[in-house]
Specification:
By secondary structure, the protein is mostly helical. The protein folds into two domains: about 1-35 and about 175-395, no CATH class; about 50-165, D-Maltodextrin-Binding Protein, domain 2 (3-Layer(aba) Sandwich), CATH 3.40.190.10. The protein is built from 16 helices and four strands. α3 (about 65-70) links the parallel β1 (about 55-60) and β2 (about 80-85). The longest helix is centred in the first third of the chain and has 35 residues, at about 15-50.
Length: about 400
């Protein structure tokens, strides 16, 4: 009987185009579109930043040493145009504010004499760091100029540069590519799956309870000789399936983006990602998402049962998305790791477990704790749903 109710409600849900759009189409397309946009925009910004002619305003003369050194830097380090303001600092900084020039350069007067006397000259670069790539370009210019002056000074003093280096320091990253990917992307992926799982549950939950009450069909269903909890479980299975479908549509969209759209140019990173999207990992993700989706269904159904209309239920459930997403956002912060404490915090434990799963350093004891905690809150949510659905005042209000 539960299966018959499930089949009936599933057919009605599939016929609803709006629900199918939220459940399948949007999650399926979000990753290809998102990755294309991010890759395209970042590539465009990097390209435009490297090719842009930087207008550098200079407080000084075009014959000054640092200006000559800047001019001698090859265009391969980025094209530039030097504009001399000859001591007019007011006009210089006004032009920078008005975006007539991109960067302002100030240095000590008599800079060449200071350097000749082996003193330390002051150099100021005024840079708007909201402009991507400007700071890196200028640091590259100054690194060339400073290295040239340092080597010249070593020659004048008769110093062997090698004798000034007591240590040859190497910093080695002990984290594997998979661990780095798990740390960077492991928190974002479950965040997206949680958001889509919530949305996938929301519309069917509202439609199958508040919607039926509004249409006046819930009374007909309750008049059948079927125990009320069986009706609830049949409907809840449809809600859970909708949430899981939305989550795995997003996962499938990610898989298609990586495997077929060639959006990751680095072959090493591509190999790491391909190793992550394997059947065993997908099964573990499913095991984590199943109780979470049941929990979502369990908190939405009592609200849908209590409310009188689709609109009223939607206005209450939609803000819950923020409450649900907040623990997931904590998993994005650095330093928050899966341990015995965080494994007991619902939703956050899913994010941290997924990060560890992707990074390949998952502790299976903590996985079991996270799963049992989510199973417990899911069971509690189902119990609350059964209680609320069993009250005549909620159904017939």
């Amino acid at each position: 009987m539960i299966f018959k109710i499930f089949k009936k409600e599933l057919k009605e849900t599939i016929r609803d185009r709006k629900t199918m759009l939220i459940m399948v189409a949007i999650p399926l397309l979000v990753f290809p579109i998102l990755i294309n946009v991010v890759v395209g925009v970042s590539g465009s910004f990097n390209e435009s930043a490297s090719e842009k002619i930087l207008k550098i305003g200079i407080i000084g003369d075009s014959n000054d040493l640092i200006v000559k050194q800047l001019k001698s830097i090859p265009a391969s380090f980025g094209p530039k145009e030097l504009i001399a303001y000859k001591g007019d600092s007011t006009r210089l900084f006004k032009d920078q504010n008005d975006e007539v020039i991109d960067i302002a350069l100030w240095y000590d007067s008599g800079l060449e004499g200071i350097l000749a006397a082996q003193g330390t000259a002051n150099v100021l670069w005024a840079i708007d760091n909201t402009n991507i790539g400007y700071s890196e370009r200028i640091k590259g210019y100054m690194n060339i100029i400073e290295t040239e002056e340092r080597l010249k000074r070593y020659d004048e003093l008769g110093i062997d540069e090698q004798k000034l280096q007591p240590y040859r320091i190497t910093y080695q990253n002990t984290a594997s590519d998979r661990q780095m990917l798990g740390e960077l992307a492991g928190g974002i992926l479950p965040y997206i799956f949680i958001a889509f799982g919530f949305l996938g549950c929301m519309y069917p939950a509202i439609d199958l309870f508040s919607g039926e009450k509004e249409r006046g069909t819930i009374e007909t269903l309750l008049s059948t000789p079927v125990q009320r909890w069986k009706i609830l479980i049949g409907k809840m299975l449809v809600v859970v399936l909708s949430g899981l479908t939305a989550s795995f549509s997003a996962l499938f969209g990610l898989f298609v983006s990586i495997e077929f759209l060639d959006l990751i140019p680095d072959p090493t990173l591509m190999a790491v990602v391909s190793k992550i999207l394997t059947f065993p990992i997908i099964i573990k993700l499913f095991a984590l998402l199943l109780p979470l989706t049941v929990f979502f269904a369990g908190i939405m159904i009592p609200i849908s049962v209590y409310t009188k209309s689709f609109k009223e239920a939607q206005s209450i459930i939609t803000p819950l998305n923020i409450v649900v997403v907040l623990p997931a956002m904590l998993g994005l912060f650095p330093g928050i790791e899966l341990n015995y404490l965080t494994a007991c915090i619902p939703i956050l434990n899913i994010v941290l477990t997924t990060k560890s799963l992707i990074a390949g350093n998952l502790d299976y004891i903590l996985l079991a704790i996270s799963f049992l905690i989510m199973l417990s809150v899911a069971a509690a949510a189902v119990f609350v749903s059964i209680r609320q659905f069993g009250k005549e005042t909620n159904i017939l209000n």
